[in-house]
């Protein structure tokens, strides 16, 4: 089955978008994590939250997850199937992590969740044969 130049362009564009968005998302997660680790007062803790972790613990989770997403974002430019799988997997983890992080930083968490969903969609719909 041959693909039209237009479909190939969309596939490449989606892949580049996913890789670039993953890099940005990874950097954002690292910065947010550093802010939480460096200054406990940066995040406002809510009372009676079921998943109440220390903000320093949330910071380290963000740093580690952000570093992994950043690395996979760069790996995605190689077009590897492993990077695609890891990109989807880590974007899912970022979305879940930020869902649990909603009470601490709601607007920012929603933005990161939306970006993670776009990364998942872009990687899931791109046809690797077109790359």
Automatic annotation (TrEMBL):
Keyword Transmembrane: yes
Keywords, comma-separated and alphabetical: Membrane, Transmembrane, Transmembrane helix
DUF7144 domain mapped to chain residues: 15-126
InterPro entries associated with the record: DUF7144 (IPR055568)
Keyword Transmembrane helix appears in the UniProt entry: yes
Pfam family, one: DUF7144
Transmembrane feature ranges: 12-37, 57-77, 107-126
Domain of life: Bacteria
Protein name, entry field: DUF7144 domain-containing protein
Source organism: Glycomyces paridis
């Amino acid at each position: 089955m041959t693909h039209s130049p237009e479909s190939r362009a969309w596939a490449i564009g989606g892949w580049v978008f996913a890789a670039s968005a993953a890099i940005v998302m990874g950097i954002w997660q690292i910065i947010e994590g550093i802010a939480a680790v460096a200054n406990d007062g940066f995040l406002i803790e809510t009372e009676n939250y079921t998943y109440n972790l220390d903000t320093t613990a949330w910071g380290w989770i963000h740093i580690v997850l952000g570093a992994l997403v950043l690395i996979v974002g760069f790996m995605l430019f190689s077009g590897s199937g492993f990077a695609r799988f890891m990109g989807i997997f880590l974007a899912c983890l970022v979305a879940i992590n930020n869902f649990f992080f909603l009470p601490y930083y709601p607007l920012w968490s929603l933005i990161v969740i939306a970006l993670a969903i776009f990364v998942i969609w872009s990687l899931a719909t791109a046809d690797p044969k077109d790359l």
